Each structure stands twice: as structure tokens, then as C-alpha cells.
Amino acid sequence: MIRTCAVDKDNQIVYDVPLRDLNNEHTVWYWVDFSEPTDQENSLLRDFFHFHPLAVEDCLDELIERPKVDFYKNYLFFLLHSIQQTTLATDEVEVFMNSHMLVTYHKQPNRAINNSWVRLKKEEGLKKGPIFVLHSIIDQIVDDYFQPVFHIEDALNQIEENSDREAVNELLDKIFDIRHDMSKLRRSILPMRDLLYRLLNSENVSFIEDQRFYFHDIYDHLLKLSEMLESYREFSADIRENYMSFNSNKTNNIMMTLTIITTIFMPLTFIVGIYGMNFDYMPELHIKYAYYMVLIGMACIAFFMFLIFVKIGWLKIGNKKNRRNRHSSK
């Protein structure tokens, strides 16, 4: 689908303008949006607009490219990353722009493009020119990054508090999922930050001077997002290490308990093994109270070894402290 709008010399906005009428002398500038284009519509990038083959290839390529800005002779080419809010999947948005045109291209319906189109149509922001529309699109794309990042922050706080008393393995699985989501966001946010930095510091885009402060505001947002992701990566790594240490310590305590039990039963098993041998002549077997004496002796040995383990600190009886509530209600 292709939708068009144009601003004429009378400062009037005209929608659904045929492509053949876009370059007439009455048009000041125009916006053409390719949404889910067909093969025939794709050919217009090369045959009608005569864009550079490399830029057209970036549009048609199925692979997700890194966000970038290329400076061609008569226009700029932007490759932007838009994030789907639920899955964090990356959608490419390509933009061709100069002072007289803006061409946007996206293979899937795009929230940022659609929101910008509707808002600018309502506010008549199209009259402010293509650079203003470009700012609106990039600003909407960057604003859509914040919600997933805030969601990651909330998820990490919930994992740290663990108010639901979930098992350590489940918490670790959640942490790995969160770090995977952060990696997805980093692959878009960091290159977008570099793109804005290059745009703001390039000598080839003098026509953005009037909007420089607005683009700098977007760059500040991307800096904030990248710093937030870095802090969350460190935070998640600390939580992961804490839970892994806790899990390892718990496993060690279980193994120690089992070892102590096995050690206590070793001499008892030795005694039972001796008197379980099938010899005809074993003097102790003929003593009247030998059975009770052996039982008492085994009990004493077990109790004595139990006291030794308690004394050296391998077994702690009655020393468990209640877990401190770090988030007590005020």
C-alpha cells in the first residue's frame, strides 16, 4: 500500500496525490509512505524515485541491518529500528529525505509511522516540512523504547524482592530471559544512538539546523536508555550471582548434612557387620544381655558423634534466625 500527501505553494495539505503529480511546480514538498509494499510497488524505488541501488537493496533485504545514516548526493538515507512492544522484535523503517521529499518504507505496519501520520494530519504539522516529520518519526520510535526498558526494571525489582517465594531455578530462568531481552534492545538502541550522534555532528546535513535542538533531545533520550540498560545489565548480573551463590551454598549444606549422617552410621554399620558374620564361635553371642549392651553402645557412639558435630559447628541446632524482611511496610 502506498499513501501520499503533499504541501503546495498555498501552504495547503493535499492527500492521496498520484505519484506522477508529486513533482509538479505547485508542490513544495511531499511524503510518500510504502507500507507492506508489493513487488510492483517496490520497483518504484528504483524506477520512479531513482534511489541508489545500495539503498534500495537495504530496503528489500530480508536480513535486519544495523541502524545507519548514509549521505547520498541529493538525499539522506536512514535505516531505523522500531521495536514491537510485546515481542521486542525489530522492524526496519527506511527513510529517504531531502528538503523537498520524504519517502518512508516499512514491510510491516508500523506504530511510529502510523502515529506520526495521524498526529501530524490532525495538527497540520506537515506544513513545517520534511525535517519536522523526520523528527516526529524518530522521536516516536525512540519513545517506544522506554516502555520495554521500564518493564525490565520492574521485572528485576520483583525478582530481587521475590515476594512470591519462587524457587531459585525459576528466578534464574527469568533473569536469563530478561538479559536476552536487554540484548535485543541494545542491538537497536546503541546503533540508534550512534546514528543520532553522526547526524548531529555531520557537516552534510546543514538543513537540520532549525531542528538541531529537537534532534539533540532525542539523542539525550537514547543516551539515557543506553545508560539504563547498562545499569540493568550490572544489576541483573549481581542478582544472578547472588542467587547462584545462594543455591550453591544450599547445595553444600545439604551435602554436609548427608555426609554427617553417613559418618555417624559408619561405626554403627561396622559393629553390625562384625556381629552379622556367621561364625560358630563368637563369645559375645552367649552373653545374656549382649544384645542390649551393643544397642546401648551404638546409641552412645551415635550420640557422642552427634555432639562432636554440633560442637565444631557442622550441625546448628536452634541457631536459625528469622529471615530479615528488607521491605517491611512503613
TrEMBL record:
The chain crosses the membrane at residues 254-277, 289-314. Keywords: Cell membrane, Ion transport, Magnesium, Membrane, Transmembrane, Transmembrane helix, Transport. The keyword NADP does not apply. It is found in: Cell membrane; Membrane. Coiled coil: none annotated. One of its GO terms (cellular component) is plasma membrane. Its main location: membrane. It is a multi-pass membrane protein. The keyword Repeat does not apply. Gene3D superfamilies: CorA soluble domain-like, Magnesium transport protein CorA, transmembrane region. It comes from the Bacteria. One of its GO terms (molecular function) is cobalt ion binding. InterPro entries: CorA_cytoplasmic_dom, CorA_TM1_TM2, Mg/Co-transport_prot_CorA, MgTranspt_CorA/ZnTranspt_ZntB. Belongs to the CorA metal ion transporter (MIT) (TC 1.A.35) family. Mediates influx of magnesium ions. This is Magnesium transport protein CorA. The gene is corA.
